[in-house]
Amino acid sequence: MGAERIILPISCALFMLGAHSQSLLQRHVDVHGRNIRLHEALESVARDAGFQLAYNDAIVPGDSIVSIDATSTAEKALRSMLGEERVLKESGEHVIILEAPERKAIFGIEGFVRDHATGRPLAQASVREVNEKHVGITGADGSFRMRVSGRHERTALLVVRTAYHDTVVFVGRDGQMGTVRLRPKERVEKMEPCHNAYCSTVDDLGITRLLVPANIQQQALNLAPEKRPIQISLVPTIGTNGKLSGAVSNAFSLNVVAGYAGGLHGVEVGGVVNMVRRDVRGVQMAGMANLVGGHTNGVQLAGAINHTMRSFIGAQIAGLGNVVWDTLSGTQVTGGVNVVKGGMRGTQISGLANLTTHSCDGAQVSSGVNIALGDVRKAQVSGLANYGRNVSGTQFSLGANVALGEVGGGQVGSLANYAKVVSGGQVGFGINACIGEVKGGQVGLLNVARKCTGGQVGLINVSDTISGTSVGLLSFAWKGYHRVDLYATEMAPLTIAARTGTHRFYNLFTYSPAVEDAGQWGFGYGSGTEFGHRGRHRGNLDWFAEHVNEQPQWIDAVNIVGHISITYGFVIQRRLIISGGPSFNVLFTDWRDAETGVYKSAIAPYSMFEEQWDTLVMRGWVGGRLGIGVYF
How high is the pLDDT of residue 20? Predict the structure, then answer.
């Protein structure tokens, strides 16, 4: 080892302060030696513990003669020779011996990093001071400059870059690291992890293990595949193909109870179960189950289950369930559950549920639940719920529709609809929620959207931005239409009116406080629309009703005034408007004196007409209003 620096390969990707997946120093060693050199004793401990040592011979007198008799941990064995003043630091499969930290001045270090094989500069290689926070990185020419703590006479630096072996370098206080050459790692061909869809076979299924003896399965593995025209079997061990059945592909197979074959290129009929190790091209019919370990191209009919462990092209019809571990290109029909673990380019029809773990290029129809963990290209129709990531078509459900991404064709659900972006609209008798943009509108009891282009119709409508019309008992758009007016009428000297919603349709709330000695007060609710809202001249058509209390106390009687008013407004400034106009008013009252029976309401200044039905009186008149308002 040189006096100025030592370059040692480290099999770790990054030196981490105090990080130990499994402590090297706590490994047990059993080392004995008399009058040997210190470096030989150190290497004996490292070899017995299964790690490598990295140290600077300037701080470890390797030629010193020592004796060692250690049956303990590696740390205790090293301490017995080095003492307590040395620092032992783990890094990957290495233990680095450092001198004790001292208070010394910070200084700079510079150097170059190159490819060992080609000699070209290595850019973006990291250089870090071991056990400290100081770090540098090489530029395009492979050079770097950095500051180090100066705690040690020889500073340990870790040089690391992706696809290269790491290296530890000890640099003196002159700050010159020189050139370090990193060895590239050997290129290893990427191996994909094996999972059931491509590694398992029919032989791994429980029913096959139960019905087919192990020696028959082993024969199928040993023998080369062959073709035969006919197989007739009672059970897998008794039939025309005998022990060869697992290696034979048949054109026609009749299995009285159960059959076991290497493949099928025709028709197979089984009383209980058909088991095929490789591919099927043709038709399978079974009383209970059809099990295929390869690809299927054709039709499977089973009283209980159809199970294909690779891709499927054609139709599966079963009483309880259909399963395809790879891609489905065709149709699945069952009274129970359809499952496709790969992509689906077809249609699933089920009584309980349809599931595809990838994209669905076709449609899912179920009286229960449809689930697509990927995109749905066409549609989902269910009795309970639909779930998809992005739906290009339509989701229709008597329960709930959920799309984590975009819905292109719309959502129709009785209980709830949820999507990020909806192009075709949401229609439901419950809740419609869209955290992004709704382009086709929302119709439901509660409509919530961040941005709504097509409008909202429901009891409660809430949005951030709306460019259509929002119609409901309460509609609120954060960036919609908001206006508050103070006006006077022949009925009340002061009324506060608040409008919220959109210009085309808004909700109107009124309150008339008691400002006179009589203490008359009231409140109202209604709707309206504003026209000419893009200029300084504004027009409003409002229709609303007010309950008027002509005394300080609440009137426990019908005393309601309906209004239809048309007002003209002039925008004085950007948010300030003065308005006024006529109003057609109708009073509906049954408020009477309990003793005399005389109607007590005095709201109407005069009567254009008066009608009476039983105890209810209706009076009409034309009035007006004048006020000032503000937009916000």
Answer: 39
Nearest to 369 by CA among 354, 349, 391, 389: 354
HSE (side-chain half, CA atoms, 13 Å) at 108 = 5
Q: Which of 78-92, 221-235, 575-589 has the highest mean pLDDT?
A: 575-589
Q: Determine whether domain 481-631 maps to CATH 3.90.1720.
A: no
- Residue range 199-240, pLDDT digits in tens: 778 888 889 989 998 877 776 776 668 898 999 999 998 988
Beta strands in 493-615 (DSSP E): 495-501, 506-512, 521-531, 537-549, 559-571, 576-589, 609-613
The domain limits of the chain are 1-184, 202-405, 481-631
Indicate if the pLDDT at residue 19 is higher than 60: no
CA distance 148 to 151: 8
Q: pLDDT per residue over 38-66, tens digit each?
A: 888 888 888 888 888 887 776 777 677 88
Hey, how many other C-beta atoms are within 10 angstroms of the C-beta on 536?
Answer: 12
Q: Shortest CA distance to 629 belongs to which of 582, 567, 583?
A: 567
For residues 485, 491, 493, 494, the Cα torsion angle rounded to the nearest 10 degrees is: -30
C-alpha to C-alpha distance for 254 and 235, rounded to whole angstroms: 10
Asked if the 1-184 domain carries CATH number 2.60.120.10, the reply is no
The tokens of 60 are what? 């470890």
Region for 146 from its dihedrals, namely left if φ exceeds 0, alpha if ψ lies in -120 to 50, beta otherwise: beta
